[in-house]
Amino acid sequence: MSFVLLFSVFVIATCGLIYELIASALASYLLGDSITQFSTIIGVYLFSMGIGSFLSKYVSRNLISVFVRVEFLIGLVGGTSAALLFLLFEQVSSFRILLYSIVSLTGTLVGLEIPLLMRILQEKFEFKDLVARVFTFDYIGALLASLLFPLVLVPHLGLVRSAFLFGAVNVIVGLWTLHLFKSDVAWPRALRAGAIGILIFLVTGFVLSDRIMSFAETSSYPDKVVYAKSSPYQRIVLTRSHNDTRLFLNGNLQFSTRDEYRYHEALVHVGLATLENPKKVLVLGGGDGLAVREILKYPSVESITLVDLDAAMTSLFHNHADLSALNGGALRSPKVKIINTDAFLWIKENREVFDFIAVDFPDPSNFSIGKLYTTSFYKNLIAAVHDNGLVVIQSTSPYVAKKSFSCINTTLEAAGFMTTPYHAFVPSFGEWGYVIGTKKPFTAPTRFPEGLKFVNPSTVATMLQFPPDMMVAKTEVNRLNNQILVRYFEDEWSEYVR
What we know:
The protein is of the alpha/beta class.
């Protein structure tokens, strides 16, 4: 019986950390800035566990009965937390209050568990053995949770289904404890009936998780959600109206099929059309294959290396019939080599030199993406481009985020590039910015591949001109140790969306 209770420590430790990770990941999906969300939620969760541990001293009788009830409550609160937060994200005026209330309640209940179990076990072991064994099982459970979460739960179950699963596990721990100590618990049949009701509810939620997420996302997106999947790195959602398909990553629009050609033609052709017979091309990000589609319009290109972190993205746009048709089957081209890895680490190890590099990362909304806009990254980038070649960086909106746009330009200069900023109007986004980096002075192209819908010599001339309302004084350099760009970006976009 003692071993069973010690094993319960292992199980509840795993469950407790899973709830913490689910809340942190969910907040980063919905609110952005993953470092801030993980840091604050972990802090609130641990503080709440401390409150729970403190409150446990006021439980002086019926320890087993209280422990069983706590397990049932944790199962209910923690198990439904992800579904509840997704469902109410668009419905409540202050989502953060709801988020931190659920985190605090879960953390407080989890904080009660270990002290209660230690007091239940104190007659079975000497104090030094009790502490050693309990915390050994506790830490092993935490290790298991930290491995399960990114490797199994997020990619294969998703946040909502994982929460329901581990909520059910907590209830089962409570039921097993109730079975072992039924003679020491008042009203065991009533407790068992309530727990079975909670368990049925959680299992039903587990089975219906996809429907719950579909309902939540239907209320979050104006058009019909036709595809939704959580990868280890982001939430991928596709919506469709009668004549428009849109891609959202963590709730942020990435493209609309009505006008994505404007964005991608501007990204690729303003720079690539200046090169004579480019042969080797590198694309960083751009897992949708739309930039690759534009690059393949140059017959001289012999090889394209696409480096994108998320295999779920490249696989989707490689295998999905409609999406593959959108990129013209670009990711199936024999010229294209796809590498799914962190571009920051890949470029550091890279020894190849390319004629043209297109950098199509998401906006620098958090520090994990912001590192891809630092001098550290750009210095490796400049080593990867031919002396007569060039790079182009998507650089957010020069109208909404003037400082962010200027910071990217300034950082490229600090890394050793000669820079040429430009912008294009994309209806789904408004004015959008890019920066070309070269080792020699840039001359605007005059000839382009046939069949372009947007880019021509006239539009390029307009792109290179900036009106006064897109101008800003020079900004700080974005370095790995300061990540000032993320702060610029957060401040500017938060003012725009209020």
